[in-house]
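Record type: monomer structure entry
Structure origin: computed from sequence
Chain ID: A
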Amino acid sequence: MKAVAFIFARGGSKGLPGKNIRLLGGKPLIAWSIEYALDVKRIGRVVVSTDSEEIASVARDYGAEVPFIRPAELARDDSPEWLAWRHALNFLRETTGELPEVMVSIPTTAPLRLALDIENCLDEYEKGGADMVITVTEAHRSPYFNMVKTNEDGTVGLVIPPTTVIARRQDVPLVLDMTTVAYVARPKFVMTHNSTFEGRVRAVNIPSERAIDIDTLLDFQIAECLLNIRRQKT
């Protein structure tokens, strides 16, 4: 199976301006995703979708293809990334005559992943029976135990009130956080549906230290600390 990896990287980022080319460990953030994608032998092409010529230039420097510039209407803060996925797949269909066998989305925001994590997602997809494979990590908070919502009277209560008294987090149903380590999808599913959970979804567990999702400066600083710890161990 030959997959095509896509890295979707908008130029605008309100949470952390310039995020996708901000230096982490001496390399632009996007470079981490490109390099891990290139390390996976089952990935035949690594394509970056961006609306930014600056990001495009950096991506090419690190070995990715940037065969198109994403239209501005698909790169706004409120633009669903799913539509950017479709746009990229449409480009490949128009230029090669067919959709790829499988697509892999490798977000820039999880630079502490390993190529092994992407391989594990492809392994899970190859088992069959799934439209998408996502990555997850064990949640540190639970809607049954310590996640609250505001009530109409101004008080707060559990997001999902349990039917019996629960004294320990370990006693509630296991919940998982979705991560941005990788997504593997059947291209025809992406082209004919509008969201992940409209289809059959499987998950691959990722250790929390490899699953950080960078959205803010604090996230970036935590990633720097974790990267330094990793490098000290090697």
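Annotation 1: The radius of gyration is 19 Å.
Annotation 2: The mean pLDDT is 93.
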